[in-house]
Amino acid sequence: MPEPKRPKGTLTIYDVAGRAGVSIASVSRVLNGQGSPRADTREKVMRAVRELSFVPDGAARALSNGLKEVIGVVFRRGGEALFEGEDESLLFMDVINRGIEVEAQRRGFDVLMSSVGFDDEDVLPRIAAIAGKTDGLILHDRMLSAVGIARLADIVPIVTLAGSPTRASMNVRCDNESGMRALVQHLVIDHAYRSIAYLSGRADSPDNRARAKVFEAEAAAADADFQVGAPWLGNYSAAGGANVIASLLDAGTKLPRAIVCANDQTALGVMHALGRRGIKVPEEVAVTGFDDVPVARHLHPPLTTVRQPMQELGARAFDMLYSRISAAAGTPDVVLPVQLIVRESCGCATNPASRAGNASIARSGT
Amino acid sequence: MPEPKRPKGTLTIYDVAGRAGVSIASVSRVLNGQGSPRADTREKVMRAVRELSFVPDGAARALSNGLKEVIGVVFRRGGEALFEGEDESLLFMDVINRGIEVEAQRRGFDVLMSSVGFDDEDVLPRIAAIAGKTDGLILHDRMLSAVGIARLADIVPIVTLAGSPTRASMNVRCDNESGMRALVQHLVIDHAYRSIAYLSGRADSPDNRARAKVFEAEAAAADADFQVGAPWLGNYSAAGGANVIASLLDAGTKLPRAIVCANDQTALGVMHALGRRGIKVPEEVAVTGFDDVPVARHLHPPLTTVRQPMQELGARAFDMLYSRISAAAGTPDVVLPVQLIVRESCGCATNPASRAGNASIARSGT
DNA sequence: CTGAAAGCGCTTACAG
DNA sequence: CTGAAAGCGCTTACAG
């Protein structure tokens, strides 16, 4: 006997119960593996579920048991004009998000991915709406003020990325200090460069501040000439890096022997700007990045940088959120180790046998 | 007077109503802009909402009005062993997903991103669970059989990507036919290559079948020697492409003058394999891709390929789903135009003034 | 314009 | 083990 197809087909647990000849409570128990339903009860229910292709409504479920099994991830998108060679998809956020998603899946959680524009002013209402649809939030770098975080933290647990923990929220970040220390030491000690500059990221970024601080300390410790601040202010974008170089060159400034960029994107812009002026990297000016984005190994020369475990960063962020959701516990502050990746843009030698693609050995120029 | 902080803090619309001295209906109306609440009613409600940092629960809302304002996106992740230089983040899925998300946001929808492993067998239950949490589904290439789609389509509207529409689902895809036609004609006519092969993608992929078919037709029409099938079976991965070349070379086979790869990833693997054997691209063998992934312009030589409007593909997919959700209407089948991107791997000349990064002009080798 | 009340589709004590 | 019933936090006719 064909089923009387309901027009707007919302099949409910009542339909299943009716067809199986049991109560809705039994259907629910079978579906969720609660209690110990009798074998034949289970059979009847499963058959009805199969025949009807029944799928329980997530909203009803969430409302009933207070768990949506969804977390939200919020990040900034676009904003800076795209620079040639700079593609949004090389942004490391994607890798972090992938890490979050994979880990979430292990726990049966799904992930609401939501981006907000770089210049959007009042993002709190938007993030609040997401909070209402989820059990917890992971916020990428510089999404919300401490006040905004505190306000939302009353609604759902929050983990921030590359920030710092607050009274109300947890944080995961990478060990900028060790990474920058290794990088600067490589330049001023291994390569013995005596003049060196730090081309910054956004001034308000905690990552940037941490990197700048260690840069100064290590350069000073090695007694190298170093430059930071005023003319060297970038914004994490390739265009920002390129602009700084262009301005300095236009002003007739002599460049230092090595330029430490706040991130890979900036380094990309710097290398491009140097290339346009015919300045050779690394022969005349060495350039380094930070992040190890996928394209870093494909640059000319391949970029020396610091690799952050981005996928793990995402996974850890989810773990922290999950333990907070399920157990109201969780470490508030986690710092992940990083790794110096020596390629060629720092001036290191080349392995002519290998094409681009290796971690620490790659061929420079031709 | 300090609020008596509820331990597990779930603030509800009742709390707001109480504080504002109105009914929950009024709170709801103010919050949703329904009806015409009096100015002072609105005031009182908004103040209470602000003071309490109230955020309505998405699950309750969804259950009540039958709209979750969430759509699901499902795609395959990982699987193929990563090849050097091949990074997951260059997969074009990310770009498509970005397109979906941006468009969804315009409508106030959020996006549940969910990946399943490449080799996961029984994905239907997992996708069904996602269907239960959303108002509609966008399925990337080859996620579900027609039967699986039909089953889920009773629950939520479905848009597939790069497939074909079914009685129950809609589809968006790019115009493989025109793209491949332009590409092959460029090789056999503009470059006058007389021998040419198609290194395929996964045999079960609709995109692959469409591309293969046009390849054959155009090569035959130009009276060129062409090879397809048996030894030329790839799987869309760089490793797959490299393996085909290695096997052919090991078997002493003479390669054709040009190799048309099913996608950019495959071309990446092919170029790498050729490089290892000292075979020059494009001087000895020309290689082309399909997709125009971000890294394509950074290869050596820059890859000639066909650009698909991936971001727009995603946006259109959402639009189709949205009109189906909100109006029960929607075109079931959309085909988007593509563009031939001529760089250097096909044998085209170079513009020495520009470094990598331009669309159709870039410098080959050194 | 506003409030009391029903209902959205589940889960889960509570009896039996 | 199983069923009747309450309740999760909203929205929305329906009266007033």
Compact description:
Two copies of one chain form a homodimer. With 366 residues, the first copy, chain A, is an alpha/beta fold.
Structure description:
The structure is a homodimer of 366-residue chains. With 366 residues, chain A is an alpha/beta fold. The first copy, chain A, has three domains: 8-65, 434 Repressor (Amino-terminal Domain) (Orthogonal Bundle), CATH 1.10.260.40; 70-174 and 310-336, 3-Layer(aba) Sandwich (Rossmann fold), CATH 3.40.50; 176-308 and 339-363, Response regulator (Rossmann fold). The first copy, chain A, is 40% helix and 14% strand. Chain A has twelve helices and twelve strands. The first copy, chain A, has a six-stranded parallel beta sheet with strand order 2-1-3-4-5-11, with helices on both faces. A four-stranded parallel beta sheet of chain A has the order 7-6-8-9. Chain A has a two-stranded antiparallel ribbon with strand order 10-12. In chain A, helix 1 (13-20) crosses helix 2 and helix 1 (13-20) crosses helix 3 (39-52). In chain A, 52% of the residues are buried. The model of chain A is unreliable at 1-8, 79-86 and 351-366 (pLDDT under 50). At the A-B interface, helix 4, strand 1, helix 5, strand 2 and helix 6 of A face helix 4, strand 1, helix 5, strand 2 and helix 6 of B.
